[in-house]
Amino acid sequence: MKDANTSSWYVLYTKPRTELKVAQRLEALGVAVYVPTRTEVRQWSDRKKKVTVCMLPSMVLVCLEEKDTAMVFDVPGVVRYLFEEGKRAVIRDQEIQAMQAFLEGKATQEAVGLQIGDKVAVPKINQQATVIALQGKKCLARLTRLGAVVSFQLQ
């Protein structure tokens, strides 16, 4: 569905808690969409329930050609694009792959004296990120371009 020569990944802001509905509607229009999610068990006073939680609140990643970027506004729930330095922020394929690897639990990195604030290359994508927390063999880092927090295992 994605043509690497002409399509790019963009970040769409949505109305709060409408990410999955917006993604579903965009897919119906033939747009390649990625919404990183995880399943959590939530407890209420009378029951427990598994719910799908979006990793990037109020954001949907879409892959479009530049000429098709206006079509997303036909979908209810879409607010605007994320901009960076006056242009639509473009997300690299490697960053998408890093999020997928994280959600599948496949990302690992060597732990050689890492400390909070250090710059690291995130596994699978070789993107720069700043370490924000270390928890045993787990490292949390903020991607420089996207600003998303990724987690990966240290070896």
Top-tier CATH class of the largest domain: Alpha Beta
Low-confidence stretches: none
| SS content category | mainly beta
Taking the sheet with the most strands, its summary is: 5 strands, antiparallel
| Beta-strand segment tally | 14
Shape summary:
globular
Count structural domains.
2
Q: Give the averaged pLDDT, no decimals.
A: 84
The CATH architecture term of the largest domain is: 2-Layer Sandwich
Query: Remind me, CATH topology of the largest domain?
Result: Alpha-Beta Plaits
Folded structure, characterized:
By secondary structure, the chain is mostly beta strands. Helix content is 14%, strand content 45%. The protein has 2 helices and 14 strands, in the order βαββββββββαβββββ.
List the helices and strands and how they pair.
Elements: E1 7-14, H1 19-28, E2 32-34, E3 37-43, E4 48-54, E5 59-65, E6 78-81, E7 83-84, E8 87-88, E9 90-91, H2 93-104, E10 108-109, E11 119-122, E12 127-135, E13 138-143, E14 149-154
Parallel strand pairs: 10-14
Antiparallel strand pairs: 1-5, 1-6, 1-9, 2-5, 3-4, 7-8, 11-12, 12-13, 13-14
